[in-house]
């Protein structure tokens, strides 16, 4: 019976990748990747000579049913399989969760390769009380649905962690300002682990003015 490793990778700084990750990738019979381009770039930066024939795409374009069934047949004929995402820890905001459902239905052993996560990277640098917090993940793309989601989140009495794609930074900031208030204290963590990293704690109104232009930066937003 195979073992499927859910393998964390860096969130931008290749030096954060672990030796254990390198070992598992090298030993894997097949590697499920979110995109071939990001995976091959990772291997190149880690000096890993991975045969491209080992790579199988497992992304938002992978359809439930025949696509995943075919992948599961390949997994069952392997000893070691690994799953990596384009960035950070798999199965939070990528299709990896569906793979886990299938693995458990087939009684396939699943093991973690712990590593970097943008969520924990943000938490460890902020002076907020994280004894309890709520991970909201990616907000809805539609403006009205995003606002409805924020109205629900506003009812919580714990820090709320929000992610979104880089090009929606200003939209998310303005939506939070509209639903909460311009004086709401938030932490904006951008480009974590990179030379351009910024961690800013301020009122949401101030951040909206500062980032009025839709600058594309990876970010984690923590609403205090």
Automatic annotation (TrEMBL):
This is Tetrapyrrole (Corrin/porphyrin) methylase. It comes from Brachyspira pilosicoli B2904. The keyword Heme does not apply. Transmembrane segments: none annotated. GO terms for biological process: methylation; rRNA processing. Keywords: Cytoplasm, Methyltransferase, rRNA processing, S-adenosyl-L-methionine, Transferase. Residues 7-205 form the Tetrapyrrole methylase domain. It comes from the Bacteria. GO terms for molecular function: methyltransferase activity. The keyword Methyltransferase applies.
